[in-house]
Design goal:
- The structure holds two protein chains of two kinds.
- Chain A is built from 14 helices and ten strands.
- By secondary structure, chain A is of the alpha/beta class.
- The two termini of chain A are 52 Å apart.
- In chain A, helix 7 (230-240) crosses helix 8 (251-268) and helix 8 packs parallel to helix 14.
- Chain A is globular, with a radius of gyration of 26 Å.
- Chain B is mainly α.
- Helix content of chain B is 75%, strand content 1%.
- Chain B has a two-stranded antiparallel ribbon.
- The longest helix of chain B has 34 residues, at 82-115.
- The relative contact order of chain B is 0.11.
- Classes of the chains: A alpha/beta, B mainly alpha.
- At the A-B interface, helix 1, helix 3, strand 6 and helix 14 of A face strand 1, helix 3, helix 4, helix 13 and helix 14 of B.
């Protein structure tokens, strides 16, 4: 081997100096070899195929009962209550902090809340068995997979008499979980459009047959945002393109919806946020944003001091007169995870949260509305719970059965993958 | 008893042979636990399959069952697909931000190491001060400062200028965010390198008739090359994986960087987690190439210096 005179080649320093060329050569070889190795290995063996799992996905027109399993039984009646602390697994800021002492007094045990960032994280941790909680707050959209994957245990409703006493009949026996086998309802929300009247002309939304067109109105470029959540953003684009039931949209329709969202990048300089509706609209950083009704009712508390809160508006396209497009509506639930250490206490907590005055105390801070018989939608405005200009944010029992409402449920797994793939294209800007 | 003595000697030699390599043990354990195992876990996710109930990635630990489809999807999309655009954008953002960091950071480091006199400690403290505040908090502060009508806009109004909508998804705001976030990490190693330059080499240069500018170009700059490289590597590595700066200061798909895409695959669309893991490994390999280039350069420079 020839050495350059400047290289150290004396016997004590035999070690070859690594040149830039060597380095590049080896890096290139590694780059070629690494991806090839597993395909060689994969050619040797294939994992046995794991078949798809049938999930019980219900809608108001075809409700479903979730299956029961021999190895996942509800607790017996009349068991003694365990000692605390009750371990709760919840979204951040999804329970009124002032309620904690009230809850502790009510259930006779201390409460510890752990939060998750998003539902994927929660499912990941619960299914890996890394975490052990007594109560979990899943959305109704993930109930079918949580049951099939045995993340949650069946409830013994003898411990939860408040369900029948206080909760809307349609939610005490909901379409996604007939007989409330695994869950009790927590809160409701519609997904609509929020705007500031000092930045956006209300006539571009209210009274429009297709209110979602406003997100493609370039007069509002630079002040417009959508939720950074693929189910919400994709469903909105599908509605806007005239698809009544996004869950049943074909691959072409989903791809077209993604293309419509991609248009927004240049047309609107669209931004994807999570706090756009309840923080950025009050602060004036956004003028127009997709919004969950609960976020918008809560937004009144996020205005800078002294600012006029009456500039904010909310519309749910499903209830706009003359509308030709649907609007999404959904609900969140409370459940007891499989293997919970304090199941009796957990049942007691669910029952406590469903009691009218407790549900109202929670709503006061949360902004997301519980499906309580005692809550008169009209009185919410009259009694000052909700300002009159945000009245469209109130969810009514009949909203779930309107012709123009799409009750957001779990997507089947192939559709979920299709949406996710298309959404990644959207978020990459095309 | 000569045999015993010999045995004792060889024991001592044996012990000694293990003492020095033994010092590497904590480092090796550290590397195994916190690098090799996690790296294998990411690799297993990238090569794994999707759970049929939760539609999320399940790692495949056994190489026999590895599935390369995630890697081929990423590679396919990197060369000719949207990921390619994002990769180029990321490289451009990181390159511009690093260059701006260098243009601002070099004079600062030079000033603190050579010209700050007895206030040097204070200057260093001021440069270090932002470290005391969490990166996210600093970015949040920028959101407030850059909001419409907020302090930055007020300065523009005062100067009679029309401020841009800072937070409306502009690449330059993301780049400035990166510069602000990472610049102290460049200044410190640069300061160290400039501080180590022997004053006598500069004096020699001047004695031999070089002008101050020429001395800088021919002596100071070449001698600080290692500091520049070290600083650039330190800031570029985290910049390549950064996702919260574009998220917080923009949120627009126009400014998406590779870090955002990985976050997206893994945290939002969990069914794509394997693709996210594959992209993580490919980004890591790219960054490792940069790192290795740096190490090779340093290695050569050290050898040259010894000769």
């Amino acid at each position: 081997m020839a050495y350059h005179p400047r290289e150290n080649w004396s016997p004590q320093h035999r070690k070859r100096v690594y040149t830039r060329r060597d380095f590049l050569q080896r890096a290139a070889l590694l780059g070629i070899a690494l991806p090839a190795l597993p395909s060689l290995l994969a050619a040797c063996a294939e994992r046995e195929g794991e078949g798809g799992v049938e999930l019980a996905i219900g809608t108001p027109s075809s409700p479903v009962q979730q299956p029961l399993f021999d190895d996942n039984q509800a607790i017996e009646s009349g068991l003694p209550q365990e000692d605390g602390p009750l371990q709760i697994y919840n979204w951040a800021d999804y329970i009124n902090p002032e309620m904690i002492p009230v809850i502790e007094e009510g259930i006779g045990a201390s409460v510890e809340i752990t939060t998750f960032f998003n539902e994927e994280e929660a499912i990941q941790k619960l299914s890996s068995g890394e975490v052990q909680y007594d109560v979990w707050f899943p959305t109704s959209q993930v109930v079918p997979k949580s049951v099939a994957g045995k993340l949650i245990q069946p409830l013994n409703l003898e411990y939860v008499p408040n369900l029948e006493q206080y909760v809307w009949p349609s939610m005490a026996n909901p379409y996604y979980d007939q007989g409330s086998r695994y869950t009790v309802p927590y809160v409701l929300y519609s997904t609509g459009i929020a705007w500031r009247i000092d930045q956006v002309d209300s006539a571009d939304i209210e009274g429009q047959p297709n209110a979602y067109e406003v997100f493609w109105n370039d007069e509002y470029a630079g002040i417009t945002g959508l939720y950074d959540s693929y189910t919400d953003a994709m469903a909105m684009a599908l509605f806007r393109n005239g698809i009544a039931n996004p869950a049943a949209a074909s691959e072409e329709e989903v791809t077209a919806a993604a293309d419509s969202l991609i248009e927004l990048v240049d047309l609107m300089n669209i931004r994807y946020t999570i706090d756009g509706a309840y923080v950025q609209i009050p602060e004036g950083r956004m003028g127009l944003h997709q919004a969950w009704s609960g976020d918008i009712i809560n937004s009144q508390y996020y205005f800078p001091e002294g600012a006029d809160i009456s500039v904010i508006r909310y519309a749910w396209p499903a209830t706009i007169e003359g509308t030709t497009v649907n609007g999404a509506i959904s609900s969140d639930t409370m459940a007891v995870p499989f293997g919970a250490q304090r199941p009796v206490l957990a049942h007691k907590f669910l029952d406590f949260m469903l009691e009218e005055s407790n549900a109202l105390l929670n709503f006061e801070w949360l902004g997301y509305q519980p499906p309580q018989k005692g809550i008169d939608a009209d009185l919410l405005v009259a009694d000052g719970w909700v300002p009159d200009f945000l009245a469209p944010g109130i969810v009514r029992e009949e909203d779930f059965t309107l012709d123009t409402s799409w009750v957001q449920g779990q997507l089947d797994l192939a559709t979920e993958t299709l949406w996710a793939t298309q959404w990644n294209r959207v978020k990459s800007g095309g | 008893m000569p045999t015993n003595l010999q045995a004792g000697e060889s024991d001592a030699v044996g012990q000694r042979r293990w003492v020095w390599p033994g010092f590497a043990l904590p480092g090796v354990v550290w590397l195994l636990l916190l690098f090799v195992v996690p790296f294998y876990a990411i690799f297993a996710v990238a090569m794994g399959h999707t759970d049929p109930i939760f539609n999320r990635p399940v790692p495949e630990w056994n190489p026999i069952y590895w599935d390369t489809s995630s890697f081929s999807r990423v590679l396919h999309d990197l060369f000719g697909g949207q990921l390619g655009t994002i990769a180029v954008r990321t490289i451009v953002y990181v390159a511009i931000a690093s260059l701006i960091c260098l243009i601002i950071g070099y004079p600062v480091a030079y000033f603190v190491s050579r010209r700050s006199g007895r206030h040097r400690g204070l200057w260093l403290l001021l440069i270090l001060a932002p470290f005391w505040i969490n990166y996210l908090m600093r970015m949040m502060a920028w959101i407030n400062l850059l909001s419409p009508g907020a302090q930055v806009d007020q300065v523009f109004f005062f100067l009679g200028l029309d401020p841009p909508a800072w937070l409306a998804g502009h690449p330059f705001v993301v780049i400035l965010g990166l510069v602000y976030g990472y610049i102290p990490f460049l200044i410190l190693p640069l300061f160290g390198a400039l501080d180590r330059i022997d004053e006598s080499t500069l004096e020699a240069s001047r004695d031999l008739g070089a002008s101050p500018a020429r001395t800088f170009w021919r002596v100071t700059l070449p001698l600080s090359k290692q500091g520049i490289l070290a600083g650039l590597v330190i800031i570029m590595l985290p910049m390549f994986g950064d996702y919260y700066t574009p998220n917080l200061l923009s949120g627009s798909p126009r400014t998406v960087m590779l870090g955002n895409t990985i976050d997206q695959f893994i945290n939002q669309t969990t069914s794509q987690g394997g693709v996210g893991a594959a992209l993580t490994i490919i980004l890591m390999m790219f960054v490792a190439v940069l790192m290795a280039y740096y190490l090779v350069t340093i290695n050569r420079a050290t050898k040259e210096a010894r000769e």
